Amino acid sequence: MIHRERTRRVMVGDVAVGGGAPVAVQSMTSTYTHDVDATVAQIRKLAAAGCDLVRVTVPDKRDTEALPAILDQSPVPIIADVHYHFQRALEAVEAGVHKIRLNPGNIGDRQQVDRVIAACRERGLPIRVGVNEGSVVERIDKQRRAEQKAALAVNPQQELVRLMVEKLADYLHIFEENNFHDVVLSAKSIDATIVIEAYRAIAERFDLPLHLGLTHAGPPETGRIRSIAALGTLLAEGIGDTIRISYAADPVHEVEDAKELLHSLKLRERTEPELIACPTCGRIEVDLIRLVADVRQKLADEVKLPIKVAVMGCVVNGPGECEGADVAIFAGRGKGIIYVQGVQKQTVSEDRMLEALLQECRELAGRVERGEAKLGATDVAIAPSNPLPRADGSLPVPAGPKSNLHGRQT
Ligand code: SF4
Fold it and tell me: pTM to 2 decimals?
């Protein structure tokens, strides 16, 4: 079990962040916020995928003017992302958003920041304060900038992390002077190792809830690894109260990957099907890759329970690898054997494997919903009496007294 760092708790609408609450999944719309229909449609899609909180950007007055209609139709709390214009923050608060994301450094005028803080306090709204790697080096004071650049040249990573933490501390003074404590912190970089070091340092120094994320991570193909490396490391160390994985892609992928990460670390209870599949190898005798893709899609569309389904290429290593699966199929030459909670149900031809497997999943899900069965109730204890032969007629199980039907030496 992961021991999570204890932070203060803030409420974002009805979603708790920090203080031991489950790690909340966030994403951000990519629509123009003033396009109410498109924005609401995307918020609903994200919420249906399991997103707990959605952020929308409000660069113009027409965006904040759209907020009441968006809030009326949103199934999840909405965060307004404000840059440069403090009036947008005040308008968003007035519209009824549930949190403001603000960078005091982008507003500049201290009195304007104070007014936003006062408005949030009046409504009981938290504010996320963040620094990005690209915005911590001094831009106005030339002497200070030169000193920072010189230090960065000597020890780039350590100095950058130090600057990020110090910049956050500077911002936090403003909130402390306003006696405002409902603050969530973030410190983003494109570099996973800087993100890890920065959040470790922040968690050490502050007791405020942390929003984890990388900035400009790129498309899922490259951003996924970078994001999971950083966020997975931090979450495994108990650091992080809400996460956003950001991709240059449909934001629904951000939610899917964030949820899978939390499931993998047992930080979030799974509510949808879990698919186990073998990577395939030279023993494969059916088109398993396509079967796995089809099963994944159909299960996501049709089954709303955390049923564990295993799709294995053969019986040699399959049984041991999918113990605990509720429904499992083991393929052989043009055929598959299906088990439901350890009981062999049927052997079907390759062209019927998808439908037969799904039918068993639907039937089990129905029995679970009626209270007649329980998921995860029985380990898959499979020792097929008739392992499917290979194309040459040989059995895929080593013969001899020292082997069992799983192909393992006894
Ligand atoms: S389950 Fe069978 S086909 Fe799949 S990787 Fe393992 S040995 Fe290969």
Answer: 0.86
